[in-house]
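lol so apparently i was supposed to do this last week
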Amino acid sequence: MNGSMTNPAEPQVAHWHGFTQMADHDSLVIDRGEGCWLTTTDGQKLFDGVSSLWCNVHGHRHVKLDSAIREQLQRVAHVTTLGMSCQTTDDLAKRLTELTPGDLGHVFFSSDGSSAVEAALKMSFQYWQQREDPRPKKTRFLALGSAYHGDTTGAVSLGGIKYFHQLFSPILFSPVRGPIPCSYRVPAEIDVTPLEHYTNEIKVLLEKHHEELAAMVMEPLVQGAAGMITHPAGLLRNLRELCDHYNVLLICDEVATGFGRTGKMFACEHESVTPDILCIGKGLTGGYLPMAATVARPHVFNAFLARASDSRQFFHGHTFGGNPLAAAAAMASLDLLTEPSCLDRVSEKGEYLRNRIISELSDQPHVGDIRGRCMMLGIELVADRATRRPFPAEFQLGRSVCRRTVRNGVWIRPLGDVIILMPPLIATEAELDILATVVTESIKAETANLIEQNDSISSDASITHHE
Ligand SMILES: Cc1ncc(COP(=O)(O)O)c(C=O)c1O
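anyway here it is w/ pyridoxal-5'-phosphate bound
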């Protein structure tokens, strides 16, 4: 690369950021955080509108999380979970089995959401190979359109977001690809409800491929990285029934939706569904330390039990999986999340934020959709509301909106032209007001600028709101 674009002496250049074009990257460097606020080294205060990439639950420097980590530090910072353990991590595993839906009862720890998904893939594959009545042909996976499950190679193979994933196709396995169960862009020609339509499409795939499918993998209710694509209510429950019927494991990836984001501890609870395997991460430690987990039901776990000489143990394990400092943070975070009425308050705040956004933006000609669940919201900006036609990618509207919000004290990061709001769950209504005001004003100002410069763009028709 042309060396004139970068200065190797600059620390920002030494630090290569993920999903970030380094050639024109003007880094914000954070010095400290407090509650929902971050302070840069230049002294600018920013509201953390995406919870430090969707994981900060109780704000920064929460006294209970800080002291839980300090206490653990006085005992031991790290031990392996390969053949040994730490009491804090064992306690966390037990706690998670109590909090996760149904009979999910066996917790396999890793360090990030992608690894939790990798473990789920290998676990489900190995399960079919060695259960009492083995099905060795079950080696494939069904994944939804626009799926996102992380950036490791197995997780990318499941991924269906062209912009992120297509480049890597020569080194990936190919899943059976389902539809994008999007409530905003429902195919025009269907004569059934969106729920029936998407259920039927997936049923056809299961019917055709079930003998080769180890598992279906999905984000329940909301596909976050796809741009907060929100499924029709009831889809998750229908897919649980279909997976049971076709003898395919259901893996729910709650890395983004877990730990209160949707107003319940886990999104699956909204539809009373217990997946066979649940992937969790991000908010598990309150967003403090890298930790994730793959939680399995007994029928999965039991298929791995045998004499040591039978080589049926799960052939997988991460150096830092189950790290005690992270486990201590997770225990403290769960104490807070399970306090009486904590999640009810989160639901109320989610509704408050959504109503604020709707009241400010409903009549905006380039706001196509306001969607998501509770404290995970997406605002999609479109060139034409009637046809839902997006803006040309080169306009980079989402990016310019977020640049403006940062200038005005709110840190958010878009997904294309979908403006993502994922504030910490502890944000007060006054703080949500700041978030809503800055974001809606920035959307209005930046779309107005864009239209002024490109008078060929026009829009009419009315907005839709999807849950
Ligand atoms: C649904 C989902 N799965 C997996 C991941 C990957 O998690 P991580 O970035 O911790 O590897 C993410 C990250 O955004 C996610 O949203």
